[in-house]
Every structure is written in C-alpha cells, then in structure tokens.
Model the fold of this input.
Amino acid sequence: MNKVSYYFPEAGLADMAEMRRLIEETAVSLHANQDALTELLLAANEALTNIIVHGYQSQPGPIEIEIVTEGTALIVHLYDRAPLFDPTAVPPPDTTLPLEQRQPGGLGVHMMRQFTNQLQYRIRPAGGNELILVKQCG
Done:
C-alpha cells in the first residue's frame, strides 16, 4: 500500500487546478491506467467543487486529500470541516424524465457514483466529513 497526502488549509476554487494536478500526478506515479484516472479525476473534481461551493459556501476552508493504493484500487480520501453532508444519501436522479421535469441539482453526486467503483462517506471522529472515492485501475 502506498499513501500520499496533501493539505490545503484555505482551499478555494482558485486551488482546483492544483488539487486536480496533484491527484493526477500522484495517480500516475502509482501506475493508474489512463481511463480509470480520467474517471477518477472527474469524480474528484465534482466532489472538491461541492465541498468548496456548497460545504464552505464558496469561502476558503481546509481540505486534505489522501491518495492510497490498495491492490489494483486507487482510493482518494477527501477530508473537510464543512457542515456535515452525506452525498451517498442523495437519491439518484431520474434521468428518464425530460429535462424540464427534472429537479435541479443532484447530477454531481450521480457523476461521482458513475465514475467510481465505490463512493463512501464517514463522519470523522473529531468532526467533519470524509468522502472516499474508490476506483479500480487494473
């Protein structure tokens, strides 16, 4: 098992490119295949955007990114101190409805589910959120 961590004490939208770059470079160094990496980056981007925009209300806030390999799985842990929110409890959108009949929102969580093999959520013992994105890369 390999593990790498990055900490952004005051993460904001301006840090998104750097966070994506670090996830991508770390995943490449851990030998993730390109298709899996692309999907994982899309899911992580959506999760990080949601933390900053919705969790922190577009204000700077701490985010820690931990990237772990376990066997052929690449696992991204996202830790934040935003108000508690469990994205795994968000019901899947009804994508069969015409656009004008759909409720706004919810597609970001849907994308996270579609682009990962597993999406997990935990409340951290000291408070805050932990979102876990698991992607099989082999």
Summary: The chain has a mean pLDDT of 92.
